[in-house]
Amino acid sequence: MWQEMSNPAVLAKIGRRLKDIRIKQNMTQGELAERAGMSILTVANIEKGKPVSMLLFLCVIRELGLLENLELLVPETKISPIELKRMQGKKRHRVRHTKDNSHE
């Protein structure tokens, strides 16, 4: 479902869901804004699916009690014991492409 949607459509759907959760928790936009340390306009923009900073988004989902759900969105990378032994001391910190294997 999400893969077929454009980025603006995804933002709009997330905004609607956050609004539904806020209302279900019997919270006004003003209350959420005050608790999250932002303006009512920012909360309204998030609920309308307008782009906001990651920090503001995190403040809203924290106040709605949804922060733990990030584990599902961005799971921790699991490494098998065999792979861990092979990589011991060789943790990758970045990806670098050479001219021969770069993706153009």
**Structural class estimated from helices and strands:** mainly alpha
Which homologous superfamily in CATH is the superfamily of the domain at 2-73? lambda repressor-like DNA-binding domains
User: What's the number of helices?
Assistant: 6
User: Distance N terminus to C terminus?
Assistant: 29 Å
CATH class of the domain at 2-73: Mainly Alpha
Gross CATH architecture of the domain at 2-73:
Orthogonal Bundle
Low-pLDDT segments, ≥5 res: none
Query: How many beta-strand segments?
Result: 0
Report the sheet with the most strands, covering strand number, pairing sense and barrel closure: none
From the 3D structure, determine the CATH topology of the domain at 2-73: 434 Repressor (Amino-terminal Domain)
Tell me, rounded to a whole number, the average pLDDT: 88
Strand and helix order: HHHHHH
Give the strand content. Answer: under 5%
Radius of gyration: 19 Å
- State the share of residues found in helices, binned by percent: 40-55%
Shape: elongated
What is this structure's SSE topology?
Layout: H1 7-24, H2 29-36, H3 40-47, H4 54-63, H5 70-73, H6 81-87
Helix pairs in contact: 2-3, 2-4
Describe this structure in words.
Residues 18-50 form the HTH cro/C1-type domain. This is Helix-turn-helix transcriptional regulator. With 104 residues, this protein is mainly alpha-helical. It has a domain at 2-73: 434 Repressor (Amino-terminal Domain) (Orthogonal Bundle), CATH 1.10.260.40. 53% of the residues lie in helices and 0% in strands. It has six helices and no strands. The chain has helices spanning 7-24, 29-36, 40-47, 54-63, 70-73, 81-87. Helix 2 crosses helix 3. It starts with 6 loop residues before the first helix and ends in a 17-residue tail after the last helix. 12% of the residues are buried. The model has no long low-confidence stretch (mean pLDDT 88).
